[in-house]
Amino acid sequence: MRQAITARAHPTSAGYRLGPRVRAAAATQPYRRRRGDPAHRPLRIYAVDPELPESDGGVATLNVPWEPLDPGPSGALLVVDGFDRVSGARYLPADLEAPEAGAPGGRAPSVDDPRFHQQMAYAVASHVYAAFTRALGRTPSFAVRAGHAGRARLRIVPFGARGVTGWYDRARGEIVLGYARRKDGHAFAALSHDIVAHEMCHALVDGLRARFDVPMNPDVPALHEALADLVALFSRFGCAALVERAFRRTGSDLRRAAALAAIARQAAGSRHRALRSALGRRGAPRVYDAALPPHRLGAVLVGAVYDAFVEVFERKTAQYVQLAGGGRAPVPGTLAAILARECGALARQFQALCIRAIDYCPPADVELGEFLRAVVTADRDLVPDDAWGYRRAWIDAFRRRGIHPPGVAIEAGEEAIAWAPPDTPLPRAETLRVAALRFGGDPAQPAGPDELERQAHAVGALVTGPGGAWRFGLEAPGRRGNTIAGLPVVESVRALRREAPDGRTRLDLVAEVTQEIAVDEGRGRVVLVGGSTIVIGPDGEVRCVIRKGTWNAERRASRLAYVRSRTGV
Amino acid sequence: MPRVVPALPPVEFAALLERFTPARRITSLHLHHLPAPEDPDPAVHAIVDADGTIRVGRHWDLPPRSAAGHNGTPDAGPFAIAVAGDFDSRRLAGIQRAALEAAIGSVRRRFGLPARAVVAHRRLEPTRCPGRHVDGRVLAHGATHPDAARPAPPFPDHVRVFHLALQALERERPVRSAETVAPDGSCGAAPGSMPQFATPIPRPVEIPHLSGAAGFRRVALCVGIDAYADAPLAGCVADARRWADTLTALGFTPHFLLDREATRAAILDRLEALVVSATPGDVVVFMFAGHGTQVPDEDGDERDRKDEALCPVDYGDGRLLIDDDLAPVMDRVPPRVNLTCFIDCCHSGTSTRLALDAPDDERVRRLVLPPSVVAAHRRFRAGRRKPPRRARPEVLFAACRPGELAWETGGHGDFTRKATARLRDAALIATNEEFNDQVAAAFGPAPRQHPTLTCTASAKRRRLLAPIVSGAAAAF
What we know:
The structure holds 2 protein chains of 2 kinds.
Chain A: H1 2-8, E1 10-11, E2 17-18, H2 21-24, E3 40-46, E4 59-65, E5 78-80, H3 114-136, E6 154-162, E7 166-169, E8 174-182, E9 185-188, H4 193-208, H5 219-236, H6 240-250, H7 258-261, E10 262-263, E11 276-277, H8 294-323, H9 333-358, H10 368-382, H11 390-400, H12 414-417, H13 449-463, E12 478-480, E13 483-485, E14 489-499, E15 505-520, E16 525-536, E17 542-548, H14 553-567
Parallel strand pairs in A: 2-14, 5-6, 6-8
Antiparallel strand pairs in A: 1-2, 3-4, 7-8, 8-9, 10-11, 12-13, 13-15, 14-15, 15-16, 16-17
Chain B: E1 3-5, H1 10-19, E2 25-34, E3 46-48, E4 54-56, E5 76-84, H2 94-111, E6 118-120, H3 136-139, H4 162-171, E7 205-207, E8 218-224, H5 236-249, E9 253-258, H6 264-276, E10 283-296, E11 306-310, E12 321-322, H7 323-331, E13 338-346, E14 352-354, H8 371-381, E15 395-398, E16 405-409, E17 412-413, H9 414-426, H10 432-442, E18 452-454, H11 457-460
Parallel strand pairs in B: 2-5, 2-6, 3-5, 8-9, 8-10, 10-13, 13-15
Antiparallel strand pairs in B: 1-7, 3-4, 10-11, 11-12, 14-16, 15-18, 16-17
């Protein structure tokens, strides 16, 4: 798949190529609201899974952005397919525009109604997409082939496999969810909020970054899993009734609210067990160890972020708890409601931080410590003053878990941890000034494939220009000894429009440039990927270059060893 | 309202075959091809498309019009399948071949056909149809195919797409008459005058509603009363309109008695008029939403010494509508007329609905009639004798059990909302008993009301709102 994409990269005569995703990004086109359209479509879901009773907050209503829907549901971004690949049956599609489904909340939650399964899969996936849109300040693109009318839409198959499992299939452009027979009926991945949100996050991250998933070190798959878990976890904290009920029962200490921190409970096959937990399961490692398998290593990162979340939450709610005379269970209803509201708001912020950090990560070969650097940089960009100590909490939590940014002492503080601007000023990209950009009616949406291609060429000219390719993590193309450096590939150029808490609007561009370095090993060839993420300010100035070169001998050796171990070269 | 019937995957096609019993005896299977799939030929019963799905074509009660002299009779003959594409010039392969083999296997299993009963068109007439690439291995495909090993779907039939096609086939069973016997034809010939099932069926298929499809009348009397003088209600007129909308979509002609029109005399007159004008095969629905109550039993026929009563808008002078009043009207139902009643009764000012036959239970909140109304009722009843009742011809769906309250939320009765939401899927397919079970299940595992069905044992097994054409017409 990767080789196919590279082969299709658009060659230029200027020493770089354009990746196929540059133009394809314009194929993801969300519905544009028209005058008179409702803002949201409320849809009911199971907040966790069907096993949690409604009286415990088990049913929630998600307000997803409204769009006209065909039966399926089938919208501008998502298509839910009611074909059961296990039994071969096809179920009636959920028609959310039909009068009987038009009641507030759509179809009523029901395990026995496949149309509700389809509704829930659509609702959770749409909700996650909306969270990415808010956090990134643009409409994220899918890395799926454009279909009907040139639109790229992600297919969700709620009855696609045996087993309470799910996966994102890039080649087929779909999220597949499964079901399994249990003693007391069937269990469905589509009815697990966490599984749907997790897989949707995989699909969106894949659309954001072309080479993010190339496994060059053990942190790469771990970061993918952790990000997906974190997005699902923080998304669930938006279900106020669920969170309020948890506070009432366990007190104000989030560390005791195991049910809230549990991830994909139903997939574990038991109401009392979770597949993973942000609190860490008994016996699970709590400290970074590169030898751990991806999901367990990812759980260490999830634990660190959750620690930071709890710390900030306690800081922000201490006064309420103190006023109420303490936070021991049973917490009074008013306090529980306040805590739930604060928890939901904070979860949205943490979720946005995690998502926004992706734009500040290197384009490939990312390490968990670099994710911390990305979070800190992204947050400093938008919120310069950190009154509640969010960044301090993140840094402390990562330090406690042994996750250190490479090349920087974590004790040096956020100033050192944040990505630094270029040592010497780079030439200004005049054609990438905001004034020179064209948008599709809104800075969150590109004007079209031609404009994206123009911007990509401007980035290509920048990275191969007189500033020196090495400053962008690139090597001169050609063979040197047993290594062959490919042409740099401009993978994407994306606008960022974000609202800061103080009301300011930031408008930047983020571009990613990658380069393949093939190392001839005699018995075979190992391919490494380097490059850089470039943040360009509104005046065309290069604000930040987050590079990941492949020339460092020590790093190259360790990457080669890791890739060899996976490929068997 | 037109419906969309999607194309069927092979498993759904097999399920449709299993559930639908054609009026004809199927003696063989003919195989054809459609070189131009965008112009579906209604001459055959099913069309296998290139995407591996199967469309229903000609109604399965009708002979095919695909091989002159070999199409059988209206009573017996072949089932005809066409595969979309030109298989003289390209191979039949992949999912289309698999779907065709599955379809052949399903038809053979369903009708017990041996391999020699599967016949290519080229063996019947001088043609190359279904194409030289449709080989003998396809034709000989037997009773096994990959889908046979699949597990059963985890959901009931009524949420599967074959159910829509099943409903359409049931609704559009053609009436056999002299005019409907078309000249015999061959694959590719111009359509004759033979009635066709939703012909041609494009994908998705628009199926017209069943109004008059089989020549039977479907009428409904929808009564909704909010405007009681002393105890006005809020959602009953809306309920009546909702039932009318739902029934209209099923081909019924609704008649309304709303608020002040709904006097005792008007209800009885209109109901009687509909009942006595009905002829065999007709379906009559009586629906009531309003107050329900109980009054002292004046003729001693009730074990609990209370008569259940519907409250017409003029109940204040004692003109309640007790079951003894309705019985003579119900008893005038002509033979083989399906009279189905849906009763959703309300209690004033409490947002609850009271069961028609609520017992003497202190916890039950019901419309308590003032003594003056009870006295007026006694005066009104004085000297009236209850006529002897013959076997109940009607099918009565009530909102709840005795001793329960029937609830109203969001401006509609819960029973009305849940029943109408399922009626379209269940009509003609589910039995009365199954429909009642579906509605009851919709109230969840711990319902606050249990919908009930009252009718004879044989009526419980009849299809919901289906014409009673003959003793076994409604059974598979």
